[in-house]
Amino acid sequence: MDSWLLMLLCLTAVSSCWAGCVEVESETEAVVGREFKIRCISCKKRGETKAITFVEWFFRAKADDAFRVIYYYQKDAPDIKDERYSGRLLWSGSNHTEDLQDVSIQITNVTEEDEGEYMCKVNRTLEFENHYYNINVSKFVQVTVVPKANRDVASIVSEIMMYVLIVVLTIWLVAEMVYCYRKIAAAGEETVLENASDYLAITSETKDNCLGVQAQE
Ligand SMILES: *[C@@H]1O[C@H](CO)[C@@H](O)[C@H](O)[C@H]1NC(C)=O
Ligand SMILES: *[C@@H]1O[C@H](CO)[C@@H](O)[C@H](O)[C@H]1NC(C)=O
Ligand SMILES: *[C@@H]1O[C@H](CO)[C@@H](O)[C@H](O)[C@H]1NC(C)=O
Ligand SMILES: *[C@@H]1O[C@H](CO)[C@@H](O)[C@H](O)[C@H]1NC(C)=O
């Protein structure tokens, strides 16, 4: 499903897709017991410059007033910093590169306690010929946890539309068939003959026209 969404975004924003990085917002509704990807993408503005990037993820539960670090990631080196998440966080971002742009993580088994605000803090060091330049980007994702998956309105509406369309088209098709059948049944051989003479009339007319044109030349 994610790849479809990405493809759709690519089609609508071809230019940014060619740059290789699109900052897609994270989904915000997690379902208890399922996995949930907290998406965080921070595109490098200067595509050609080499960069070294690491990310820290923070979490603030509803009751807490401060963010606490839960996860750290640097090339191929994940580190879960909070015991509430031990064994439950997987890396879901750019792989095998120091130059991270997708720094998403995945919670493997969502519980109600995972509800709250997440922050990804990206620290990127751009390497220029004779100096380094350090930038940090922070993004916030508000996650709600629901006991069961809610279907989104768009998918419900499109399903209803589909059924309505099928019913309407079927009725139309049947009506059209009945109409045509009646018309054919009502028409006798006379019509066939009539049509034949019409056809002949037209062809002789065109013949005349052709002769007329030739005569003018
Ligand atoms: C990186 O690898 C992990 C584990 O194999 C995978 O879940 C994740 O989707 C990969 N990331 C990307 C951006 O493909
Ligand atoms: C998910 O968490 C629940 C509650 O903590 C636990 O009972 C269950 O075994 C866990 N499932 C997996 C696949 O880890
Ligand atoms: C990024 O990380 C480097 C190295 O740890 C540190 O010196 C720098 O202050 C960090 N930058 C920001 C903006 O946090
Ligand atoms: C980046 O780091 C500076 C200090 O190093 C800080 O003042 C600023 O708020 C940070 N920006 C973000 C988006 O976190």
From TrEMBL:
Keyword Lipid metabolism: no
Membrane-protein topology: Single-pass type I membrane protein
Residues covered by the Ig-like domain: 33-138
Listed transmembrane segments: 160-181
Signal peptide: 1-19
InterPro entries (alphabetical): Ig-like_dom, Ig-like_dom_sf, Ig-like_fold, Ig_sub, Ig_V-set, Na_channel_b1/b3
Molecular function as annotated in GO: sodium channel activity; sodium channel inhibitor activity; transmembrane transporter binding
Pfam families from the UniProt entry: V-set
Keywords: Cell membrane, Cell projection, Disulfide bond, Glycoprotein, Immunoglobulin domain, Ion channel, Ion transport, Membrane, Signal, Sodium, Sodium channel, Sodium transport, Transmembrane, Transmembrane helix, Transport, Voltage-gated channel
Subunit structure as annotated in this protein's UniProt entry: A voltage-gated sodium (Nav) channel consists of an ion-conducting pore-forming alpha subunit functional on its own that is regulated by one or more beta subunits. Forms homodimers and homotrimers. SCN3B is non-covalently associated with alpha subunits and induces the formation of alpha subunit oligomers, including trimers. Interacts with SCN5A/Nav1.5; regulatory subunit of SCN5A/Nav1.5. Interacts with SCN7A/Nav2.1; probable regulatory subunit of SCN7A/Nav2.1. Interacts with SCN10A; regulatory subunit of SCN10A/Nav1.8.
UniProt xrefs under PANTHER family: SODIUM CHANNEL SUBUNIT BETA-1, SODIUM CHANNEL SUBUNIT BETA-1 AND 3
Name of the featured protein: Sodium channel regulatory subunit beta-1
Origin species: Xenopus tropicalis
Lineage: Eukaryota, Metazoa, Chordata, Craniata, Vertebrata
